[in-house]
Amino acid sequence: MDQGTAAVLGACVGMVGTLGAAVSAYVAARHQVREQGKTEHKKTIRAERREAYRGFLMEVSRFERNVDLARLGLIRLQLDGAAPEVWVEKFSETDDLSDQIKELKVQSTDLLLAGPIELAIQAGPVIDALNDEFECLHSAICGYSWGREEEEEYKQVREVASQAITKLGALASQILNMDLV
Hints:
Number of helices: 6
Distance between the termini: 56 Å
Structural class: mainly alpha
CATH architecture: Up-down Bundle
CATH topology: Four Helix Bundle (Hemerythrin (Met), subunit A)
């Protein structure tokens, strides 16, 4: 084989090697960009989910605080021997609690949209338990009484609510803080 043919063959081999390296670099870069995009998408979804659940749990906390204040007001009415008209005034103050329950139901729809479903469905038992708390207070107001029996019923209802909230919070923490896969 003469020198000219060897030079042409060497150039061809070099060109094929360079072309192969370029194609490999292109494929690797595309793969890296695709993986980065997937990772960024997962981070965005996780941040949106966290914000949705954080907002829901903050609204639950605000509701619980308002229920506590309403309960203390009922205890005060009972201790003061308040007239039925005063109890009826307290009844109108519970509209805010009713509105908060409605808002939580709207937020639970947002949770279903945010997913994951196994977590979002845990909002239902929380809302049901909070509604039971509201109904317990509401019944006491309608009966113009907050005595030992009402207090015991409320404690039982509150315990169920606390358990539902704890379960949702624990599951949310577990699912939303998993490493990205």
